[in-house]
Amino acid sequence: MKIYHPKLANGRWKKLAFAEQMAHIGSEVIRALNWQSKNSKISLLAMERAMELIDLTLASESSASRLKELCRTRETLVDYYYGKNLYSSTKDAFDRYFYQFTYLAQLKREN
Q: Is the pLDDT of residue 9 over 90?
């Protein structure tokens, strides 16, 4: 698998707060979904970057509840993007889900 974020993979990712990690993941997910109908190559690359960031987060996270949430998030994303959308997910639902982390990360930056 190609590494898209080598500096983050080398330990920098672990230093970010969970909300910041999720905000970065959300950015890539939303980018992938926005490009899905416009340019499949750009969309696929963004989703691969999102999967890499999720995997980096899974590798650095020790909280059982966060691990469960991350695994479920990854599962629903893979189902929606690559699979048959058995969970009936929507782009709007992913927008709402990741927005809360972006908002929280921004609040923490301002304080």
A: no
